[in-house]
Amino acid sequence: EGPALFAPDQVMVCLSSKGPAADSLLRYGSRLAGRLERNWFAVYVQTPGEAPEKLDATTQRQIADTLELAQKLGASVFTYRGDEVVGTILRFAREYGVGHVVVGRPGPRKPLRRLLGRPGAVHELLEKAAGLTVVVVDPQAPAVTPAAVPVFEPPPGPPSGSRRAVVDASDLLQPRAVLVLPACPSKQELIRLLLERLARLHPRLDGASALRRLLRREQEGSTFLDTGVGLPHARIPGLGPPLAALALCPHATAKGDPRVTLLLLLAEENPEEALALLAAAARVFRREEAIATLAGAADGEQAVARWKSLIGAAL
């Protein structure tokens, strides 16, 4: 059996462009998730002061490398934009059933913040994170194995309320929802092409509303990583079963161009399903050979067969 996907104690690692030794935080989060047998997330909140045009090339490369490492270690990677770092972290934790938040030990506060009596982000998180276990890791300390912590175990039996069972990730794709493209278009155009294909396959889908939600999610933070993978997704009210479309760009050559783009539309009313499918995709896409295998599919039939095989190997 795989890890318990729906217990409300998933693991979340909070990343910052200014945080020291992010790789230590990620490896700690990976070990903690393994001990708990839970999924884990790496979340980076880009503040206005961290906009790409305000950062030097070294810092931008460091952020990209950190997010790439998080994916390779098995995290589902999320990026957001905004100035409410703690609020974004807490909203994410509630939405995705996070119970354990891993943060780096804060450095000295800036003199102005000290003068104004404003707490740093970590101190504010500790004050507001009621019901969460916040683990503050000193990245400079020797690597340690996370201590045993209480694990919530869901009660036996079917989920309560009106929640549906989670779809099998191996059955997510159908051949007609796969695009093999001779050239890699822009990321926004990729989203449009995939959504148009889903709208033709599912006439009841409100494509315009879904597009607005997908583009709004991209504005919050790109779902495309430098590893050649895109995972645009949105949660749609009243959607029903999840919908997926796949674009393959085998001839993508520029750094950052997505060779594989998996678009997911997920029911807003079923966060467990969203968590399960995003986690399954993260497990597949953390391996370079899996990305290359999928990107090399000749057509939709072959892509679906390879997807099923890769999902089976990742579980």
Explain this structure:
The chain is an alpha/beta fold. The protein is 39% helix and 18% strand. The strands form two sheets. Strands 6, 7, 8, 9, 10 and 11 form a six-stranded mixed β-sheet that branches. Helix 1 (22-36) links the parallel strand 1 and strand 2 (40-46). Helix 6 (187-201) runs antiparallel to helix 7, helix 8 packs across helix 10 (300-314) and helix 9 (288-295) packs antiparallel against helix 10. It is globular. Mean pLDDT is 80; it is low at 1-6, 111-117 and 150-166.
Q: Could you tell me the radius of gyration in angstroms? A: 20 Å
Query: Would you list the SSEs in sequence order as H and E?
Result: EHEHEHEHHEEHHEEEEEHHH
Strand-pairing-aware structural class = alpha/beta
Rounded to the nearest angstrom, the distance between the terminal CA atoms is 8 Å
Low-confidence stretches: 1-6, 111-117, 150-166
Strand content: 15-25%
Number of helices: 10
Task: Let me know the number of strands.
Answer: 11
The main β sheet shows up as: 6 strands, mixed
Form type:
globular
- The portion of residues assigned to helices is 25-40%
Describe the structure in brief:
This protein has 315 residues and is of the alpha/beta class.
What are the main properties of this structure?
single chain; six-stranded mixed beta sheet; 315 residues; five-stranded parallel beta sheet; alpha/beta; globular; 39% helix; 10 helices; disordered N terminus
Write the layout of secondary structure elements.
Layout: E1 10-15, H1 22-36, E2 40-46, H2 57-72, E3 76-81, H3 85-95, E4 98-104, H4 111-116, H5 121-128, E5 133-137, E6 178-180, H6 187-201, H7 207-220, E7 224-225, E8 229-230, E9 233-236, E10 243-248, E11 260-267, H8 271-285, H9 288-295, H10 300-314
Parallel strand pairs: 1-2, 1-4, 2-3, 4-5, 6-10, 8-11, 9-11
Antiparallel strand pairs: 7-8, 10-11
Helix pairs in contact: 6-7, 8-10, 9-10
